[in-house]
Amino acid sequence: MSLILFACVVRVRDGLPLSASTDFYHSQDFLESRRRLKTLALRLAQYPGRGSAEGCDFSIHFSSSRDVACMAICSLQCPAAMAFCFLETLWWEFTASYDTTCVGLASRPYAFLEFDNVIQKVKWHFNYVSSTQMDSSFGKIQEELKFQPPVVLTLEDTDVANGVMNGHTLMHLEPAPSFRMEPVTALGILSLILNIMCAALNLIRGIHLAEHSLQVAHEEIGNILAFLIPFVACIFQCYLYLFYSPARTMKVVLMLLFICLGNVYLHGLRNLWQILFHIGVAFLSSHQILTRQLQDKQSDCGV
């Protein structure tokens, strides 16, 4: 008998199902677990990143981060480490295929129907590959579960009576785990230093020009903004390199555009070499941001 019976991907903020596996189980207990899973999906935003709800014959596990959650119905014989390793693998597969914008714009259930095949593939792998081949992967998850155990519910706690939660246990909300980026490279550090230097130059020139303009004329407001907007863009580029942000490519292109337009506008206050220096640093920073990715965790879970 399979240990993982059903899996789905849902949107956290409203419980909208995005994709799901095909199940061939029609027992009353399984159908009841499906109903309770749907109810729990509507309230995922109230819980920490990982949780389990156990019943008589089946257990429900969920793992959420950002606005995407993966949920599964498993047999009681399925180890928790295996269930959460499966869910984490599924989460990485989904977020690698669809960005935050696509998820946020989804307006109908099962909008990512093509991902169903991926769910079936990962589910089959975890059900039929020998557990001894994935012991090292499970060991890492077991250590994480010891350090930060998932919230434990009963299936009765997933019911909603008259739109109000009937569970009486005070749930302790914890932040979702942060995403680890790839290590900072030497070229990345250089781009940060140059970016901070460009930001400082823009800020100093902008403040100096603002003090002068307030005393003399108001027609230089455009020049002031042309210094200060690239200053903000440079600082934001540093942030995008150091920390993960959704829709990162769009933000990088936007910051690069602000810096290029600002420096072109300042032609006359800056010579050609200064303009090329600022634009070159902006392109270097943009390249470093786009090439620094999230650490690949899929290999940790044996898929």
Automatic annotation (TrEMBL):
This is Vesicle-trafficking protein SEC22c. SMART domains: Longin (SM01270). May be involved in vesicle transport between the ER and the Golgi complex. Residues 8-119 form the Longin domain. It is a multi-pass membrane protein. One of its GO terms (biological process) is endoplasmic reticulum to Golgi vesicle-mediated transport. One of its GO terms (cellular component) is endoplasmic reticulum membrane. CDD domains: Longin. The chain crosses the membrane at residues 184-204, 224-242, 249-266. The keyword Transport applies. Belongs to the synaptobrevin family. InterPro entries: Longin-like_dom_sf, Longin_dom, SEC22a-c_C, Sec22a/c. The keyword Lipid metabolism does not apply. It comes from the Eukaryota. Keywords: Endoplasmic reticulum, ER-Golgi transport, Membrane, Protein transport, Transmembrane, Transmembrane helix, Transport. It is found in: Endoplasmic reticulum membrane. Its main location: endoplasmic reticulum.
